[in-house]
Give the backbone structure.
Amino acid sequence: MAGTTPGTPRVLRAMNDRAALDLLAAQGPLTRTRIGELTGLSKPTASQLLARLEDAGLVRSTGSQSGRPGPRAVLYEIDPAAGHVAALAVGHTGIDAVVADITGTVIGSCRVDAEAVAEDVRHRTAQLVAEAVDGALRGTGLGHDDLDGVVIGTPGAIDPHTGRLRYAPHLPGWHSRTLVADLAEVVGRPVVIENDVNLAAVAEQYEGAAQDHDHFVLAWLDEGVGAAIVLNGSLLRGATGGAGEIGYMPLPGAPLARGGERDWAGPDAGGGFQSLVSRPAIRALAGGRPLSEALADEAVRAEVARRLATGLAAVVAVVDPELVVLSGRVAQAGGEALRTLVETELTGLALPRPLLRISDIEGNPILTGALRTALAQARDSVFDTV
């Protein structure tokens, strides 16, 4: 709304438009009467608003509501064709991508398999991203120019001062100083790169265990270990984007993580919390057995719970969240049995006593969070009627 004066009729109309669009995006089809009730607008004003949004191609009528006396009320919904986004999740073994319309309905998907450390892959990062986006667009009838937002979830975080990816030495192809510009060039649209664990937390905020909580920590327990910290409903990022990198946190019994990180592109030094509770660490503890089999062993599960509780106690003591969500393959394999043990072990280690839950997000939570983030950003531009 740059260049407009707050309180003018034009701005007020735009505010009402956005309120109605957000309601339709969150709740699905609504009648004019219901939109008026929820926004506090009169019937004539609600009618004018809907006519304006229909003319702008942002809403459309979709049948009518029955079951009430009198004429059948027309239902209105967001027009799916009003905008589109792409969301990607980058991992050690490949890139997953989806394309969705502005309502969040996924209309295309693609996976590109690629070992992140392979010599031929590290020089083709931008091309692999383009391949994933192209694959997700294939069959949708859309092109790059139709995308109103592109969000990529990746381990590590973009340093706001240098533009380089930090805290992800296992992704050597992602450490170019021109990474964001290179990706934007091949995708043909501006690209946002976001930390993967932060995106998993966004997924929990929208449709997971943290929907009713403004202060929570998501602990990601997988091939790597990290955390997302949400305070007052907003992600805590830190000065260099590294808030929540608890995998490097020194703990009793763990080697210190030293060296190899000055340029954030060398080999991972190991050590810290990650060396105790990551998927490889738990498999090593169980003599190389598969993760699910390892955590089915009572003795292994008890030791993992003790290690987890020790690390989480340090986080809880500093952040004082009302909820801790355990996510990633370790949490899923351990399930409720592991959660119960961790909860017991936490007793007395830290004065705060947050709730402790296992993530119940279906599918890839990083991809879900990337999609939610892309939709939120796209709607800010698509839904702006000023």
Observations:
- Confidence is low (pLDDT under 50) at residues 260-267.
- The radius of gyration is 23 Å.
